[in-house]
Amino acid sequence: MRTSTTVNAGSMADIAFLMLIFFLTTTTIMNDAGLDQTLPKPCETEDCSTDIAKQNLLSIAINHEGAIMLQQEEVVVNAIAEEVIRFVDNASNSIEGATSPDKAVIQFTCSRDVPYSDYVKVLDQIKSGYATMREDYSKLKFDKPFNELNGIERKLVLKQYPLQLAEASGLNR
């Protein structure tokens, strides 16, 4: 009597399929990390241009050499948050500050040659300035920190201090 030299592999396909299903259902897929940025709403009218009073515009730029310019004057990155607060809040009612916090616009321009890390550092400083102002306002108005506010209170604080950021890239050398 002769024995067969082949192996019955009929159930191998079933086992491979079950293993594939198991690994697909138990594997977690990493999401790409990025900046948490809210994009402006699309323009629904014919004329989308907006006139911004020069007094309400704070210009921040990073040139191709990596120098940070705030209103055409060079500053260090750590000073940006304080300058944003001084400009937007304008506690002294200076002509060099915004007429009100809800009308302040930050114009952030960055050269394409600048490393991404420098761009993020400046953007973090801008957001840090707004976070400080919102925190102070929520403590003054509602006597509690911003992260403890309910939805309505949070909207009121964000309405008082909206981050209006106009970004551009590609400064010429």
UniProtKB/TrEMBL annotation:
GO cellular component terms given for this protein: plasma membrane
Tagged with keyword Nucleus: no
Bilayer disposition of the protein: Single-pass membrane protein; Single-pass type II membrane protein
Keyword NAD included in the entry's annotation: no
GO BP terms: protein transport
Transmembrane segments: 12-30
Subcellular location: Cell membrane
Swiss-Prot/TrEMBL keywords: Cell membrane, Membrane, Protein transport, Transmembrane, Transmembrane helix, Transport
GO molecular function: transmembrane transporter activity
Stated family: Belongs to the ExbD/TolR family.
PANTHER family for the chain: BIOPOLYMER TRANSPORT PROTEIN EXBD-RELATED, EXBD MEMBRANE COMPONENT OF PMF-DRIVEN MACROMOLECULE IMPORT SYSTEM
UniProt name for this protein: Biopolymer transporter ExbD
Source organism per UniProt: Leeuwenhoekiella blandensis (strain CECT 7118 / CCUG 51940 / KCTC 22103 / MED217)
